[in-house]
Design a protein that fits this description.
Blueprint lengths: L4 E2 L10 E5 L4 H18 L3 E7 L3 H6 L5 E6 L3 H12 L4 E6 L4 H10 E8 L17 H7 L8 H4 L9
Parallel strand pairs: 1-6, 2-3, 2-5, 3-4, 5-6
C-alpha cells in the first residue's frame, strides 16, 4: 500500500489530475490565479480542480482555469465529503496543492490525496494522524516558518529575492 508523498519536483506524467485547496478570501484567489495558470501551462492536466469557499464562488465559477470547483469553506462538511467522493470516481489526484493552514484545509488535502498522490503545502499525515512532515531542506524550512512577514525573510532564505508577492 502506498502513502501520500511530499512533492519535490517529480514528474507527474501525462495529463495529471491536480487539486488546489485555498482560503475563502478574494486576496487568496487573486494570489492563487498565477499558480493555477502555471499548473495548467506546465502540466496540461486532465483536471484542475479548486476547493475554495463561498465568498469567492463567483470567481471560481467564472475562471476558465478551473475545471471543477467546490466551496470547501462555507459549505457543510457533508457536502464536501460527497464532492470529494464524486471527484474520486474519476481517479485520484496526482498532485494536491494546499495554500491554507487551517486544520480543515489540511484534512481536506489529506482526503483529496490518493495513496500515491503528491502533496504540496500543509496536509494531515498518512492515516489522518498528525501533520505530514515537511522535508528537512530550505523549502521545508520555509514552509514551516511562521514568521513569513519578517523583514529578515530574505536573509533566512537566500533564494527569495523579496518578502513581497
Amino acid at each position: 500500500m502506498g502513502s501520500v508523498r511530499r512533492y519535490t519536483g517529480e514528474d507527474l506524467g501525462t495529463a495529471p489530475r491536480i487539486a488546489v485547496v485555498a482560503n475563502d478570501a478574494i486576496g487568496n484567489f487573486v494570489v492563487g490565479t498565477p499558480l493555477l495558470q502555471m499548473l495548467r501551462d506546465r502540466w496540461q492536466p486532465s483536471a484542475l480542480d479548486y476547493y475554495g469557499g463561498t465568498r469567492t464562488w463567483e470567481l471560481i465559477e467564472a475562471s476558465d482555469l478551473i475545471d471543477f470547483g467546490h466551496p470547501l469553506h462555507g459549505a457543510p462538511p457533508s457536502h464536501t465529503a460527497v464532492a470529494i467522493a464524486e471527484r474520486a470516481e474519476d481517479g485520484a489526484y496526482d498532485l494536491v496543492v494546499n495554500m491554507e493552514w487551517t486544520y480543515y484545509a489540511k484534512a481536506a488535502t489529506g482526503m483529496l490525496a490518493g495513496v500515491q498522490s503528491y502533496v504540496c503545502g500543509p496536509s494531515v499525515g498518512n492515516g489522518g494522524r498528525g501533520d505530514l512532515p515537511f522535508s528537512d531542506d530550505a523549502m521545508g524550512r520555509l514552509w514551516n516558518d511562521q514568521e513569513w512577514v519578517s523583514p529578515e525573510i530574505t536573509a533566512r532564505y537566500p533564494d527569495l529575492k523579496t518578502g513581497f508577492i
